Amino acid sequence: MQSASTGVRGVKLFNEYSSMRAAWCRFAPLGFLGASLGLAACAGKGTGLDANGRPLGSGGGVGGAITADFQSIQDNVFTPVCTVCHAGAGAPQGLRLDAANSFNLLVNVPSTEVPSLVRIRPGDPDNSYLIQKIEGHASVGAQMPFGGPPLAADVIAAIRQWVSDGAQPATAQAAPAVFKVLSTAPATDDLLIGSLPQVMLAFNQEVDAASVDQQSLRLERVAATGEAGSSELVLAKLSLPAPNPHALLLTPLSPLQPGHYRVLAHTAPGLELADINSRPLTLNSSGVGDDPVILEFDVAGDQ
Ligand code: HEC
Questions:
Q1: How far is the CA of 219 from the centre of ligand 1 (A)?
Q2: Is the CB of 115 under 6 A from ligand 1?
Q3: What is the pLDDT of residue 194?
Q4: Residue 178 pLDDT greater than 50, yes or no
Q5: CATH of the domain at 225
Q6: Which range of residues forms the domain containing residue 137?
């Protein structure tokens, strides 16, 4: 007899595989401390740091290309160096540093390791946890990049400067036609192992803060059997990580138990999310009752 939960996980084999790979990448460097083997094995594309701790890449490993703006930091550091580990459902501490998610998971978002500090505090590099992690004096864990050579001084200086200058996002594109969700962390159908600090939704437009209240979104745990009507509301705090008006964070009040989860938008008039141009959120997903599902994911127990 197959248990119901085996059935749920059976259809998620691909996701399990990718999380396992990420989990392996997360821990591999522990086994190869001091050797670059762990990093190289996970990188896949062979990108990383040169012997001086400068990101390899378009510049052929020659430093000096990085400037103190978000796009440059993403392209020269986060994407080539950090996403070796910080990507996908198994990203360490839930921190995804790929281009779609990094800004929204950094600026004014509490660190998982030291929740009293935010990962990036605009204008205050000393109290930005990411800066402490790349400089190697954070109170928890290792210097980043984990197991590799530290970033070069001029690279760290550029990231510090970006924070001092207010940690602005990459320059915005022209106003899009509809208001919609651009990316989420976790992503739909992710299988998360262990804890989940928060759910992040990133939008293509600035969210109208006045349209946000505790009812705008809700997090539900769906019983593994998938029986109709067997979902339960999970208490979570909804917040806007000012000054990033493109993102919303949903922080569960207590750690999520293993199970299948979904995030729904309320569509009742007066409760729906709107952008600064007063356009309601466009969602073309199927719904539960009248409320569209924004994303679904699974949480597995610690292994
Ligand atoms: C080889 C894998 C690996 C790479 C590459 C890596 N990290 Fe990490 N990162 C980890 C692990 C594992 C942890 C948790 C353990 C620890 O902190 O030592 C972590 C934790 C963090 C945290 C703490 C998150 C929080 O919310 O508390 C930050 C910030 C961070 N990394 C930033 C970076 C940055 C920036 C880069 C690129 C310059 C990077 N990491 C590269 C594996 C990696």
A1: 27
A2: no
A3: 74
A4: yes
A5: 2.60.40.1220
A6: 4-164
